């Protein structure tokens, strides 16, 4: 079953990808779900013809890219509205998932709104927006995992340790006047 189709800029060209497979939505909390993918395959469309596509490359920790990374990256991008992908098609079940996360947006003073909750990477860890400055947005999983996004474009700047360092820098920068706090979660220390 076709799950998604999207355009993405690669090597200076716009490429059209299609992802086929199966998806179920699993309950994470009473109000949040996450997708479970199976039997995934990807094709790239060239001159109107679809050709099987296998992702290549590795991320910074050596993880080989997979078709699941392609679909989860696309869904994550839609939740954050970071404009990295151009949506051509998204199955209703996944569109409802994206819409459920985009339904609760936080107004960031003078900047684009951001979702209160997001899914990233593995798609089964819920992150909450905890803090934002005029330059960066910070999400946390309720533990030691942090994510740092650009406030304007909503693109990922850093994850985990480096995002935590960025968070500490932002707190310092607020103190010296080079950043301005524009949002703080109520339950944030």
Task: Name the descriptors.
189 residues; alpha+beta; six-stranded antiparallel β-sheet; 22% helix; 46% strand; globular
> What kind of oligomer do you see?
single chain
Number of alpha- plus pi-helical segments: 3
H/E element sequence: EEEEHEHEEEEEEEHE
Global mean pLDDT: 93
Q: Main β-sheet: number of strands, strand sense, barrel status?
A: 6 strands, antiparallel
C-alpha termini separation: 46 Å
Our Rg estimate from Cα atoms comes to: 18 Å
* % residues in beta strands: over 45%
Q: How many β-strand runs?
A: 13
User: How would you sum up the global shape?
Assistant: globular
Structural class: alpha+beta
Q: Which regions have little confidence, pLDDT < 50, spanning 5+ residues?
A: none
Q: What's the helical proportion of residues?
A: 10-25%
Topology:
Blueprint: E1 2-10, E2 13-27, E3 33-46, E4 49-53, H1 67-80, E5 85-90, H2 92-102, E6 105-108, E7 111-115, E8 117-119, E9 126-133, E10 136-140, E11 146-150, E12 156-159, H3 160-176, E13 181-184
Antiparallel strand pairs: 1-2, 1-5, 2-3, 3-4, 6-7, 8-9, 9-10, 9-13, 10-11, 11-12
